[in-house]
Amino acid sequence: MIRHLCLIGILALLFVAGTWHDGFPLEEMETPHLAKSEGIEGGEKTSLGARTVVIPTPVWVIGSYDKEGKPNVMTSSWVGICCSKPASLMTCLRKATYTHGNIMERKAFTVNIAAESSAHQAAYVGRVSGRNVDKFKKTGLTPIKSSLVDAPYIKEFPLIVECRLTKTVELGSHTMFIGEIRDVKADQTILSEAGVPDIEKLKPFVFAPGSSKFYGIGQSLGSVSDLAKATENK
Ligand SMILES: Cc1cc2nc3c(=O)[nH]c(=O)nc-3n(C[C@H](O)[C@H](O)[C@H](O)COP(=O)(O)O)c2cc1C
Question: Is-above-0.90 flag for pTM?
Answer without folding.
Answer: no
